[in-house]
Amino acid sequence: MTKLLEWLLGVSLIGVAWGLVTFDLLDLQLPPQYRELAWPMPVYLLVAFGCYSLAAVGYRVATFNDCEDAAKELQAQIKEAKEDLKKKGLKMNHISLEVSHVH
Amino acid sequence: MASRRGNAKTGEQADKYSVLLPTYNERENLPLIVWLLVKYFGESGYNYEIIVIDDGSPDGTLQIAEQLQKIYGADKILLRPRAKKLGLGTAYIHGIKHASGNFIIIMDADLSHHVNTLPVKRKEGGYDLVSGTRYRGDGGVYGWDLRRKLISRGANFITQVLLRPGASDLTGSFRLYKTEVLEKLVEQCVSKGYVFQMEMIVRARQLGYTVGEVPISFVDRVYGESKLGGNEIVSFLKGLLTLFATT
């Protein structure tokens, strides 16, 4: 089953459950509190998911590692590589490699 | 085809890693990549070969590759060029045909990492596939501004929600595969470009292959190469939705 179908199935199931409770489709005579709680649930869930998404992405951006050491190490290795390759006879017009700086 | 690699499966010492390097106009990056690979594989003692798949680069990449072959030996540097730019998937198929290793490492020619972290992790967990991730552990990036980080994390979040891929970084292309696993996956995957990389991991999970991860430091080597404009974002979303609907 594709992810799309999984989602459609999940949403349908939740939708049916919500519809059954909110509109009392099976004539279950549920207490009114259930219906009052169920009715705005879809909106609540969407808002809750939206907040979670913002928080998660915000947190992940804030904790995104900056690899200063790796960049320095690479700079040093580029130098070493150029010299070593020249010694070994590599002929190039120029090797203008640089680690790109913060844009 | 399995018999060709039959000997390689009999013991850990017999493991061999074939690095596939599809190149297009990488005249300047290629020597550095090769130098780093030789250095790290040399230090770690792993058996390896590097297969350069140049798609007819007009900047002379192939000539540089030939010089590197003279320096490091034709058993370590294999040249399997193609006439013109034919795309990543076919480059992998082409490379696999000439690979003698039982493991294949793929990497973009403009990235550089400690390549030996991949085999080490794989051995630890016996994985079918090991993927480099920027988002976990001490993985990370260098020189990215807020905008780029936001887009990257945002896109990854959407990807995780929609595809639940079981891997933290889908758009990376620093990976190690068991050769037969890569063969199987390339057969199944139909997307192009980096969506192809995403599809590989999604399909791998579906087929029940085990996926390990290692943190990697992504350092942009080429000055100013930031490809996150509006077009990129739109095509990413299109690719993501296609995967969502078809996998």
From TrEMBL, chain A:
Gene Ontology CC annotations of this record: dolichol-phosphate-mannose synthase complex; endoplasmic reticulum membrane
Predominant localisation class: endoplasmic reticulum
Domain of life: Eukaryota
Pathway participation: Protein modification; protein glycosylation
InterPro entries, A to Z: DPM3
Coiled coil stretches, renumbered: 64-91
Compartments where found: Endoplasmic reticulum membrane
Primary role: Stabilizer subunit of the dolichol-phosphate mannose (DPM) synthase complex; tethers catalytic subunit to the ER.
Record text on subunit structure and interactions: Component of the dolichol-phosphate mannose (DPM) synthase complex.
Family according to the record: Belongs to the DPM3 family.
Protein name in UniProt: Dolichol-phosphate mannosyltransferase subunit 3
Species this chain originates from: Sinocyclocheilus grahami
UniProtKB/TrEMBL annotation, chain B:
Biological pathway: Protein modification; protein glycosylation
GO CC entries: endoplasmic reticulum membrane
Listed Pfam families: Glycos_transf_2
Co-factor requirement: Ca(2+); Mn(2+); Mg(2+)
Catalytic activity: a di-trans,poly-cis-dolichyl phosphate + GDP-alpha-D-mannose = a di-trans,poly-cis-dolichyl beta-D-mannosyl phosphate + GDP
Residue intervals of the Glycosyltransferase 2-like domain: 18-185
EC numbers, comma separated: 2.4.1.83
Domain of life: Eukaryota
A single BP term in Gene Ontology: GPI anchor biosynthetic process
Molecular function GO labels: dolichyl-phosphate beta-D-mannosyltransferase activity; metal ion binding
Keyword set, alphabetical order: Endoplasmic reticulum, Glycosyltransferase, Magnesium, Manganese, Metal-binding, Transferase
Subcellular localization(s) per the UniProt record: Endoplasmic reticulum
Major localisation: endoplasmic reticulum
Top-level EC class as recorded in UniProt: transferase
Entry function: Transfers mannose from GDP-mannose to dolichol monophosphate to form dolichol phosphate mannose (Dol-P-Man) which is the mannosyl donor in pathways leading to N-glycosylation, glycosyl phosphatidylinositol membrane anchoring, and O-mannosylation of proteins; catalytic subunit of the dolichol-phosphate mannose (DPM) synthase complex.
Family according to the record: Belongs to the glycosyltransferase 2 family.
Subunit structure: Component of the dolichol-phosphate mannose (DPM) synthase complex.
Record protein name field: Dolichol-phosphate mannosyltransferase subunit 1
Lineage: Eukaryota, Metazoa, Chordata, Craniata, Vertebrata
